[in-house]
Design goal:
The protein has 331 residues and is α/β, with parallel strands linked by helices. It has 12 helices and 16 strands. The protein is 35% helix and 24% strand.
C-alpha cells in the first residue's frame, strides 16, 4: 500500500521568522564553506529557461541543487514576465533526503533578497583589505536595503555612499538607514565622485549600461557585480589583478560576464580561464582572494541555487520546530 506523505507549505511570514540578518550571514558562510568541501552540488545545467510569453504566459526558470550538509535537495521554480516583475511567483520545492517525497514548498520573495545580500557580503569579507572601508552602493532596491545591515554587521565601514537613478529613491534610502547604523550614509549623484576613493563598489541594479567605468578605481579596491545586465565596464576587469565568481557557467550567461562575451571582449572559454577562484574557495580559505594589498578585484556574485535551497531548507526546519506553515497530505 502506498504510504501517505505530508508537505509543509510556508508563507512569507514563516520565512521571515526563521531567518534574520545574523542567521542569513551564518548560513551563507557555512553554505559556501560546505560547497568548497564538496558537500553541495548544482544541477547540470545549473539553470533551465522556458519563455512562454507568446502563448500568453510568462518566463519560467528552473534551478536545482543538493545541499548535503542540510540533508536535502531543492528546485527553484521561478515564474515572471520580466526581471523586475513585481508579480513574480517564485517558490523552492524541497526534497528531504530521508525519503523521496516532496517535503516542503517555500516562497522565495524575501529569501531571494536576503540570500543575495548575505552571499555578497560573505564573499566580500574575504576580499577586502582591513578597514575602515568606504563603500559605494549602486542601487536602492529591495536587495540593496538588505545589504545595509549585512555590511554593518560584517565589515568595518567608515562611510556608505548611495547612488540611484531617482533622487527621491536615494533620499528615502538614506532616511531609512542613516539612524540605524554607526557610520555616515549619504547620497551621491555623480558616478566619478561615487567611486573615487571607495574601497568597495557594489552594483545591484537593473542598469543596462555600465555604471562603473575603468580608470576610477583605486588600488586595492573590490568591485562586486550582482545585476542581470551590464553594470561594470569591461575595462574594469582588464585593469584588475583578480577575478572571482560564484558560478562560472551562470556568470558567463547573464550580468556583466554575459555582456562582456556578447560585446566580443571574451569568449566563454577565455572568461572561464580568467577566473582566479570561486567565491566558495575564497570563503573556505582554499584559494586566496587577493595576493597583494594593491590588487584590484572584480567579483561577480549573482547567486546560486545552492544558496536559495539552503535558505529554504533552513526555513522549513525552523517552521517544523515551531509548528509554522500548513501541512498538506499528498496521496
Amino acid at each position: 500500500m502506498h504510504k501517505m506523505s505530508c508537505i509543509r507549505i510556508l508563507g512569507e511570514e514563516d520565512v521571515r521568522a526563521a531567518i534574520d540578518t545574523d542567521r542569513a550571514l551564518e548560513l551563507a558562510r557555512r553554505t559556501l564553506r560546505e560547497q568548497a568541501a564538496g558537500n553541495s552540488e548544482l544541477s547540470t545545467p545549473s539553470s533551465m529557461s522556458l519563455d512562454a510569453r507568446r502563448f500568453g504566459a510568462g518566463r519560467f526558470k528552473f534551478k536545482a541543487a543538493t545541499v548535503g550538509h542540510l540533508g536535502a535537495s531543492g528546485i527553484r521554480l521561478i515564474s515572471r514576465r520580466s526581471p523586475t516583475d513585481t508579480e513574480a511567483f517564485n517558490y523552492t520545492a524541497v526534497y528531504d533526503h530521508a525519503g523521496l517525497a516532496l517535503s516542503g514548498l517555500v516562497p522565495e520573495l524575501w529569501i531571494s533578497r536576503i540570500r543575495t545580500a548575505a552571499f555578497g557580503t560573505a564573499t566580500l569579507e574575504s576580499l577586502v583589505n582591513p578597514g575602515p572601508l568606504v563603500v559605494a552602493l549602486f542601487g536602492t532596491g529591495k536587495i540593496a536595503h538588505e545589504f545595509v545591515p549585512m555590511l554593518a554587521s560584517a565589515l568595518p565601514i567608515a562611510e556608505l555612499r548611495i547612488n540611484s537613478r531617482r533622487a527621491e529613491s536615494m533620499a528615502a534610502f538614506v532616511a531609512a538607514h542613516a539612524s540605524k547604523v554607526k557610520f555616515p550614509v549619504r547620497a551621491e549623484t555623480d558616478h566619478a565622485r561615487m567611486i573615487a576613493g571607495a574601497d568597495v563598489v557594489i552594483a545591484v541594479t537593473a542598469a543596462t549600461q555600465p555604471l562603473v567605468p575603468a580608470g576610477l578605481l583605486k588600488p586595492g579596491s573590490v568591485v562586486c557585480s550582482m545585476g542581470e545586465s551590464n553594470e561594470v565596464d569591461y575595462g574594469v576587469l582588464a585593469e584588475s589583478q583578480r577575478f572571482i565568481v560564484d558560478d562560472p557557467e551562470f556568470a558567463s550567461e547573464v550580468g556583466d560576464g554575459g555582456a562582456w562575451i556578447r560585446q566580443g571582449h571574451l569568449t566563454r572559454e577565455s572568461f572561464t580561464a580568467r577566473v582566479d577562484a570561486l567565491a566558495c574557495e575564497v570563503v573556505a580559505g582554499k584559494k586566496p582572494g587577493r595576493l597583494a594589498a594593491t590588487d584590484r578585484i572584480v567579483a561577480i556574485i549573482q547567486g546560486m541555487a545552492i544558496g536559495d535551497v539552503a535558505f529554504a531548507i533552513h526555513a522549513l526546519h525552523e517552521a517544523a520546530k515551531h509548528g509554522r506553515g500548513k501541512l498538506v497530505e499528498l496521496p
